[in-house]
TrEMBL record:
It holds the Pfam family HATPase_c. GO terms for molecular function: kinase activity. The keyword Lipid biosynthesis does not apply. Its EC number is 2.7.13.3. It comes from Salinicoccus jeotgali. Its main location: cytoplasm. Its cofactor is [4Fe-4S] cluster. Residues 155-343 form the Histidine kinase domain. Keywords: 4Fe-4S, ATP-binding, Cytoplasm, Iron, Iron-sulfur, Kinase, Metal-binding, Nucleotide-binding, Phosphoprotein, Transferase, Two-component regulatory system. It is an enzyme of class 2 (transferase). It catalyses: ATP + protein L-histidine = ADP + protein N-phospho-L-histidine. This is Sensor histidine kinase. Member of the two-component regulatory system NreB/NreC involved in the control of dissimilatory nitrate/nitrite reduction in response to oxygen. NreB functions as a direct oxygen sensor histidine kinase which is autophosphorylated, in the absence of oxygen, probably at the conserved histidine residue, and transfers its phosphate group probably to a conserved aspartate residue of NreC. NreB/NreC activates the expression of the nitrate (narGHJI) and nitrite (nir) reductase operons, as well as the putative nitrate transporter gene narT.
Amino acid sequence: MKEANLIGLLEAMFHQSKEMILFVNGDGEIVYMNAHASRTLDDTDYDKSQFQHICSHCQGMYVGEGRIECNNCYLHMDEKVTFQVYMRTRDGSIEPFIANFQRIDPEEGISVFTLNPLSEQLKTQEMEHQKRLTQRIIQAQEDERKRISRDLHDGVTQELLNVLLEMRLFKYIEDHDALTEKMQKSEEFLSRLLDYVRNISVELRPASLDDLGLEAALKTHFKWVERQYGMTVECHLDMHNKRFNPEVETVVYRIIQEAIFNAAKYADVETVEVDLHEIEDISGHSLNFEIRDGGLGFDLNSHPLGTGLGLFGMNERVSSVNGNVTIDSAPGNGTTVSGSIPL
């Protein structure tokens, strides 16, 4: 193919491409942009005979967890890079794009910057994510219903049946002492039943969380854990009975509850440590939590011993309040669940 033909094809591709293509110099000034870029980006007061800086369009690169920054800007990179960037468009909105940036003339400092819209791709990914999330939530709800149903059947129903059988015998007992003994046994059955129902109620939603707040609810739960599992919870709660947003309190309570339950079930330990405190730094107020056990631990890359929905639920819960959670564990080194929620 002749060079003239190749140049003609490249020019046609440049002008007719549905991909936005911009050439920028070493100072970040736009040397030229194709028609699609000119139609899409906000080029108000843009005199094509003059340079315009790419930063007047760019709003920063996506670096994770919803953060957009200009650190390590692509303009200073010599190798080819691909990243997600946000650009200001002609209608004034800020839109995400998949960008490719490559230096093509090192001597003149000229680079090519290509952009493809990400909105539709993000919508598809979000729909798939929501679908998977819904499926896992439904599965978690069904598993929880099965557990509650099994607890009610094996616990409450069995105890009620025992009491019913004892009471049916009352009318045949003529000896006063024997009747008194049977009644005492029935009272014991009913007391156990009351404790069992109360435990189920506490697991589902502790009243103290709504009435007295996070700190009181956690202390009550820790006492219940000690009675139920024989495991001591050493807590360091530095909140001075302060109340927080109800959603934040619920998220923190559930994460700590799940971490302690996992320790009791899998870690083989007698003590769990819980730290919870409010801090203030340059980024603002946050509620920090950490749950540690020195137990068996597990490989984070291996299949979980249980359903894995507990760990999944932690991440989903904390993300709903813009927080973060980290799980650090290794076989033989225990498990630490830590995180922070902005207030």
